Amino acid sequence: MADYYDILGVPRDAGPEAIKKAYRKLAMKYHPDRNSGSDEAEARFKELSEAYEVLKDPEKRAMYDRFGKAGTKSGGAGGPFQGGFDLHDAIEIFMRDFGGGGGFEEVFGGQGRGGRGRRRSRTRKGENTRVRIPLTLQEVASGVTKRVRVALLDPCEACEGTGSAEGEAGGTCSTCGGRGEERVAQRSVFGQFVSVTTCRSCGGEGSVVRDPCRSCKGEGRTRREREVEVEIPRGVSSENFISLRGKGNVGPRGGPRGDILVLLEIEDDPRFVREGNDLVTDVLVTFSQAALGAEVEVPTVEGSRTLEVPPGIQSGQAIRFRGGGLPDLNGGAQGDLIGRIRVWTPTELTPEQETLFQSLREEEDPVPDSVAEAGGERRGFWSRVREAFTSG
Which is higher by pLDDT, 113 or 139? Predict the structure, then answer.
C-alpha cells in the first residue's frame, strides 16, 4: 500500500506549500484531459488527489501520521472520504485549488469538468490496429504513398452505433446511477471502509442497452474492410512506425476511434548493408585494377555510378561517396555510399595467364613485414569504415 508522502514525492516533514507544489506538478502531468482517457493516468490522478487532500489538512494529516490510511477512511468523525473517493472527487479537488483564474482552462484548452453530481461520459475508445508495410530501399530513398486494406470496426449501420435495436442511446445504468463506478462498503475494527470499483452492470460506461441490436449484438459496431492511405516520408527505417490518429477501430456504442499503428519493414537489398543513413557495398577488383588503378561501376539505390579506384589500393579499404546514401528522416545530412574494396583472386588460370603471373612473381617486390606497412590493417570492417570517414 503506497504511502501518501511517497505518492507526492515529498518528505514527511514537508510544509503545506511544498505539498501543494508537488501535487500541482504531478496532477498536471496525469490529469485525464492530458492523457486521452488513459486508465493508468486516471488511477494515478485519483491517487495523487487523495494523498493531497489528506496531507494539506493539518487534522487529517495528523490522523494519517498516527493511524495510516485506516485513520483517514474510517466512518467516524473526521473521516474525509466517508462516501468513497472516485475520479469526480479528484477533479473537484483539483478544480477547487487550481481551477480558478483561468489557470485550468489555459492548461487544458477550456475543457473543464463539472462537480461530482454531474454525469460524466464514459464511452470507451476503440482498440488500436497494427498493419505492416514492406518497403524497398528505393522507396526509403524517395518517400512513397501506400494504400493498404485494413479490417476495422465501424459504427453499425443497423443501429447507427448505439447498440440498441431501437436506434436510441442506452438508458442510465440503475446499478451505478450513470457514474460508471460502484462503492462497496466494508466494516472493520477501524470503522467502515469504502472502495470504488468499476460498475459490474455497465462496465464503467454509465449506461446499459435494454434491447441489443441483432446485427452487432449490442456492441454498436461491425467489422468491415477499408482502404487507408499512408504517407511515408524519406529516410525511414524498420525502427520507425507511423501513427494514424483516430483512424482505427471505433469504440463500443459511439466511443472514439483508436489509432492505426503502421509498422515499417525495410526489405533486404543484397547489394547493400545499411548502417544508419549510410550504405555499404562490396566492390570487386582484379589484381591489376588494384595495383594500377581503374574506373569501375558500383550500384546505387537509384542506378549506378563510376568509382575511381586509386592505384595501390588494398583489399578491405573503403572509398566514400558523400551524399550517396539515404536521406535523413529529420532533415539532416544525406548519408554516404561506401565502396568496400575486395581484390578478386582468380581460381583458374589459362596457360598464358599462368606464364604472366610466373613472370610477375619473379619481378614483384616482397610483401611488407606487417599489414600496417601495406597500407591497411586487419581490423574489423567498421573500424576501417570509420577511418575512411575521418580521412580527408
Answer: 139
| Rounded Cα–Cα distance for residues 334 and 212 (Å) | 58
Neighbours of 223 (CB within 10 A): 10
Name 283's bridge partners: 341
Sign of the Cα pseudo-torsion (138, 140, 145, 147, in order): positive
SS3 label, residue 309: strand
Please state, for a pLDDT cut of 90, what percent of the chain lies above it.
Answer: 44
Cell numbers for 316: 578491405
pLDDT at 189: 58
The whole-angstrom separation of Cα 207 and Cα 195 is: 21
pLDDT tier for residue 160 given thresholds of 50, 70 and 90 = confident
CA distance linking residue 20 with residue 52, whole number of Å: 7
Q: How far apart are CA 179 and CA 200, in angstroms?
A: 12
Which domains does the chain possess?
Answer: 4-101 (1.10.287.110), 123-163+221-267 (2.60.260.20), 273-390 (2.60.260.20)
Q: Tell me if 120 sits within 8 A of 177, measured CB to CB.
A: no
